[in-house]
Write a structure and sequence with these properties.
The chain is an all-alpha fold. It contains nine helices and no strands. It has a single domain, classed as Orthogonal Bundle (Tetracycline Repressor, domain 2).
Amino acid sequence: MGKGEDTRSKILDAALAQASEGGFESLTIGTLAAHTGLSKSGLFAHFGSREELQIAAIDAAAERFADTVFVPALKAGRGLPRVRAIFEHWLRWTEDSGLAHGCPLHAAAIEFDDRPGPVREHLVARYEILQRNLERAFALAVDAGDLPADSDPGQYAFAALGIVFAYYHAARLLRRPDAADRARAAFDRLLAGAPAPAA
């Protein structure tokens, strides 16, 4: 990378760390200048506005997520081995990426879910890519005969996302030490096709 690209990469690393801890609303040119030691004018040279910075940080988070979750999972065989690899990498992705305060994409989804504008639109586009990739993994599991032929990959993907979001809630907000174990148990039931236990 050239000097400018290297500086931009360092800024985005700092932005992701800050978004992980304080959400995307905490991202401003001023706060990042303080965290990176760069001048505000130097940051404006890379990001002309706060909105542009937030969008770039969402892109950086999505790319890091893909590199940490989906790329390693490709080493697993098609079908349920790959689906399970995606899930396991997903549970650990923030720790593996050095984002000690949780998933910045999940934080952004909560912040921007009902706030129209370019940042929300960009975030939605990224989540739609995630949804398609997840559905594709389940479709391959159907093709491989690991799931029933009449399975709906979209429904499996929907349920898997629900399990991950429940895991975030239990692990981050409630600080439940059994959050990962419960998420894995729920995922195992999903793949086995077993009905959820009665309340």
